[in-house]
Amino acid sequence: MKSPIIDIHTHGVGGLDTRTASAADILKIAEIQMACGVDGIVPTVYTDDIQTMRLHMSAIKEAMELQRHSRLTAQAVILGLHLEGPFLNPQRCGALKRTAFIKPTERALNELIEGFSDIIKIITIAPELDGAVELIRLITKLGIIVSMGHSGATYAEALAGFSAGARGITHLFNATAPFHHREPGLVGFGLTNKAIYIEVIADPYHLHPSAIELIFAAKPLDKIIIVSDSVKETGTMPTSSAGITDINNTLQGGAATLMESARRLIQLGSDEDKIMRCVTENPTRYLSSLS
């Protein structure tokens, strides 16, 4: 039986994204994803104020319920949701809304996830924030995977997050402090720790081909997960030589679907079997790593 192709980090595609109150929009995203060769998705919710995030989470939950009670097969299965924030470092906001980042507290977490903990698969957190390590322990006990990202963490802070239960790193290299030979930081931790999973955005814009080559040379293959980080503009317009960017030339997210990225790496010379494991077996194992 063919292993399902899974994208654990996708915000949108085809003019739609998770910033919606409409379950129909989420189902349309699932339909487009299936047409693009993806069997399962973990829709990723943008950081915003808690009530807005909950509104967007409600749309995903309703879409999951509609899928569960329908016989539609032309949609990627919605496997749960990924919260990219709001417990992130404003100095490493990337394209996210830094004014919505908040301190990691149990009270804020409970307000955010009440009624949704059964469908939340992943929460991205910056481990260096005050209170983050304690929150990572709590989230892990709830059976939710913690991924470290949008972070300026030192190597020691990354290790503390991992020791508290974090099991992944969100889009390695992107929106993190750069690697330094005296302070390898979260990037260095992700490359050298053999147990932690890493997301890799493999479109032509987020990582130099040599950085991708470094990842595959340093990491055990079974810990590499290729993601799209796709945004609503993906598939709707030709991208510039800089990808999908804002007026400040900041990358706004992935510019290619998951399978476009996988095919690109294969065309560049990567082994097809290895690349396919990074979009099938590896994300499947990661999503079940706390079960």
UniProtKB/TrEMBL annotation:
Keyword Phosphoprotein part of the UniProt annotation: no
InterPro entries per the UniProt record, alphabetical: Metal_Hydrolase (IPR032466)
UniProt keyword Hydrolase, yes or no: yes
GO MF entries: N-acetylglucosamine-6-phosphate deacetylase activity
EC number: 3.5.1.25
Keywords: Hydrolase
Family recorded in the similarity comment: Belongs to the metallo-dependent hydrolases superfamily. NagA family.
Name of the protein described by the UniProt record: N-acetylglucosamine-6-phosphate deacetylase
